Amino acid sequence: MIPATFDYVRASSVEDALEALAVPDARLLAGGQSLLPAMKLRIARPSLLVDIGGLGLSGVEERDAALVIGALTTWDELDRAEVLRRPAYRAVSECAARIGDLQVRNLGTIGGSLAHADPAADMPAVLLALAATVRARSTEGEREVPAGELATGPFTTTLGPAELITEVALPIPPPGSGSAYVAVEHPASGFALAGAAALVGEDGSSRVALTGVGATPFVLDGKLDAAEIYGDRFAPEEYRRGLARTVLARAVALATKRAEEDSRWKT
Amino acid sequence: MEDVIGVRRPRVDAPDKVAGVTRYAADGHVHGLLHARLVLSTEAHGLIRAIDTDAALEVPGVVAVLAAADLPTATQGTDRTAEPLAREEVVFAGQPVAIVVAESEAAAEDAAELVFVDYEPLEPVLDVESAMTQGAPLARRVEAGTDSGDLESIHAGADHGQADEAAEELSGNVLDRIHRTRGDAAAALAASDAVASGTFRTPWIYQAYIEPQVATAWLEPSGTLVVSTATQGSFVTRSELARAYGLPLERIRVVAEPLGGAFGGKFALVEPLAVGAALALRRPVRLVLTRTEDFAATNPESAQVTELTVGARKDGTLTAFSGRMIVDRGTNAGWGVEGITSLLVAGPYRWEAFDVTGYGVQTNRFTFGAYRGPGAPTAAFAMESLLDELAAELGIDPLELRLKNALVEGDQGVTGRVPTFGAVEVLEAVSAHPLWARRDSLPEDEGIGVAAGYWPGGNEPAAAVCRIDTDGTMTVVSSAVDMTGVDTGFATIAAAAFGLPPEQVRVVAADTSTGPYAGGSGGSKVTYTVGRAVQRAAEAAREKLLAAASEELEIGPGDLEVVDGVVRAVGAPDRSITVQELAQKTLRFGGRYEPIEGHGGSAQVSQAPSVAAHLAHVRVDRETGEVEVLDYVIAQDVGRALNPALVEGQMRGGVAQAIGWALYEELVHDEDGRLLTGSFLDYAIPTADRLPRIETVMVEVPAPDGPFGAKGIGEAPVVPGPAAIANAVHAATGVRFRELPMTAPRVWAALGGRGEPNSDALML
Q1: How big is the A-B interface in CB pairs under 8 Å?
Q2: What is the ipTM of this complex?
């Protein structure tokens, strides 16, 4: 439970961090709630940790027709953010509130989670359902990646070795929208065996995404029966498919209820 | 006494633990300390061809890499004490093979990765049933040693049943076979009006104590070996180390540090490793297992297969039971629970006849160790499930069936005459509880189950010392390890027996060089045996006190009483002297009275079993298979609750662990015998948010020989829990589970997926 030897540097700016990331096998340290346990088990062996905790990339606000969440916003901040009480955004705070325990939520960040790309992470499903865009910086400049194009497989993303997520932007849903996140957790790890996020519009149209059931979270376009579902010793494929069906139905039902609340919502 | 015994008080160890100032075994500062890290076997079964330590020794800070031949062991035994590192054959994945010792933990960990062990793999023996059959491959090729020490006696002693004439043809993996029989069980079953039978399976279960196993060992310049450790028993650890390394007892001092949880799993398992390294290197060595190592390399509760048949007459009178109980001992050649589980399967009931055989079978999984009520929850799971089936078949209320057959004092139980026993009382308590009355008016997919079970308690002679200081306070010296409230109980007993407020009594843990004898804290025996010794020690000190007071007050000792630290004349309370004044008159140059101290001992021969009845109320989510425990009631015969707050804490803790047994906990290996659930990311225990409100009903049936009527209550509360929950799940769904845990995927599958019961999956 002691990590292999590594160097540590605390970045003073985004540019500073990007420069430090030039070292081979350097890794960004955000909240450390996934990376540090992996290092303690020596599954991860970075040569250098670039601590971006001091860069102030946190906060939740509506800006330029989008809801913008800073990459270093913690789960607890999302849980408590006033703006996220709107029924259309409730999936975000609802999801954040059930991640890990309070200690994890005090430190774990949304950007860190996205970059870690755990296939059973909760929040990516919500970001997919809410059609979020991830903004990332590298020495080449800034780019925007649709949330669905970030993860390419378990623990792998399209992020470059010297690229840093700065914020996540969600289009502001029209009035009368509702969202929800429902998951069944592994009883030990708390990670989703199947998690579903739904955004339901005033007209009853919905956009749904699943996590925990495949190599990456995904937006469900067609029928669930056609989707490739992952199985393991604890939760075989057939069970997970059944769970996915259940959490999807529950998330859509909850989001629909919230859509009605949203039409009466006063900010 | 009335304001001492039975009063709720905080645990004496709680303030330090809450404040974070308790020094556990991994916290002590030792000059020149080296840190050890283990290299664990990656093979479940194999022969060690070679261990390459060259790269590891290159790591800066590494002092040594030790293999079995480097440890100065003195016996050829093959148990974990005698063979702390595998000599030639590895018999489970996770068995320690080498110890890396370094100046820092980090260096030791770096180097441990660089130790390369070359194995010749052997076929692992993983299936306990096929391992029994004649001709099955053996889980251990190298002949097992017979020198197994005295670890078995720590737990509730079970005799070895009857000598068996008709030996079965079994493989050498069957290390023990215990046959228990009375009457003609086959005839009694044949004549029964209802018979139920089934095969029940429970998995390996990890004790999941908070503090991983740890030990520190060093040699004093005089040559005395000092071992500072997290153990449940200091004297048994000392004798085990003496056996392993051929040392005289007087050369070993075992210091039992405050324990961060144990539940049966901390008896001389890691001490032989730390000691071996310290003796080999002649430097202080500390070994602290990581959680991953603790999962892989320690001694969880056995998996068990129970085949059981039970019968009853039309009127609900139980007739007989018969069956086989196959206990997977893993690699533990020394002892197993086949003895105790084949006793306890009878439950707290009267039987006309029985015929049951327990088998202890070796496999290449772990080393079996004890876990709270070893062998009991799995036995109760089988029996209590079948009792519900009998009740249903006979159309009798399941609680009435149990009450009708509950053992009472004087009955003939499976081991003879039943002592004072509260089975009827606890069953009546849950029968009268409003939750039981709700069982027929529940929403769909909810159910309430009942079950009962007991733990026989254990005995071992013990002694204690009480001393009054010049400030008028008492120090109780005991060698019993404070496991969940032992010291608090001792303070209460001593205060009541002597006549002091409990706040003026402190209990100190002595080590094996200074302390009066006490056995390991286990088997629910400490309060009943050491507590009795503390009571007698306090009474002996009180005699010294009264002798001195008698002279000072010029009143006969028989006319004096001690109340709240004051000795006074009965009926004339103004004629008095304080304990403090008397102590000051004794403990000084030229004093005239003997110090106010007492030594007390006990050798209990009576049994004081504790019995519990549980009600579990569950809701089953048919779509996800998740079982939620909504309400829980536990009624337990606690003898006399010395401190109700602590007794209730034990009852709640037992229920929490029972919920783990029922719904979550399971150590799983892959087909090669490698552990798949070796961390808390894979191995689920019930966290606080998954527990219901647990209502405790203490039923006090005083134990005649216990201190103030108290008895051991630590193990009984877990025993019937898995059965109660399984019975509740059956009540909710109509599906009877014969295998634990009832995980969500299993429940979902048994319900046919999507809530449509699938007749193939119904295990009834």
Answers
A1: 55
A2: 0.95
